[in-house]
């Protein structure tokens, strides 16, 4: 059977093609009786407008993309959840691009999305979190941004001029350190993350700054960077506990490493928080699912995704949008922190 076209609908309704188009796209008023007749014919034939053809006319595809580095890290699905719900409400569909931490795959996705003519891109992690992004990788994203609206979440490209939505992670790390100091802890360690990434080092610097205000610091042997996984948290925590002078409290780069640290602590026969306090970062669903429940810093992940879509929508519609939207973190105190051991 030959598919019905907009021309067939116009002929059957005895109206012009432009009238049918106005009904389909809701771009101009159409008499109620005429609209009802056209919609009846559309329903009868189960007509579906050709999205590709519509995109050629409207210069829009109704699709946006989100590029993220690790779909298995609970932080990123939480951001995506906020973004997708907001996007659906605005009439967009989503491309989800998981790079698995591969910068080459980021480039492949950027090329593909340009070919797909998406209306906009939300970018998380990867190159935008590097302390020093190579010039060619930075320029690649800048070139994409000249053709397609791009919003960065929790990251930046120096001199890229991108619109950004981010949580003040330094302020969040300072909240974690202040909480432990108020509990009487002086021997504090930091676990997880990569020194090449700004999202790690901004937390480390904020914790060190807060400790120095109290005449303290994190010694080198208690600053154990590595990665962001549960296994990494377990491994680095084992080094701390098997040292000659274990800390009484640990701040972790994210909730994954914090949960790994908690597992190793319990396996060593220690009690949380009686023997050692542990703080995470992100407030993912895992934080309230473990026992004891994890004290952590909320980044308002759902809101990050929602606001990124709102900003992207404004850019797609060529409206004036402020460059930066900053969210303030919140310390969520649960069961994994307590007074320093005497």
From TrEMBL:
SMART domains in the cross-refs: HTH_LACI
Gene3D superfamilies, alphabetized: 3.40.50.2300, lambda repressor-like DNA-binding domains (1.10.260.40)
UniProt KW keywords: DNA-binding, Repressor, Transcription, Transcription regulation
Keyword Glycosyltransferase among record annotations: no
Domain of life: Bacteria
HTH lacI-type domain: residues covered: 4-58
Protein name in UniProt: LacI family transcriptional regulator/LacI family purine nucleotide synthesis repressor
Species of the source: Paenibacillus tundrae
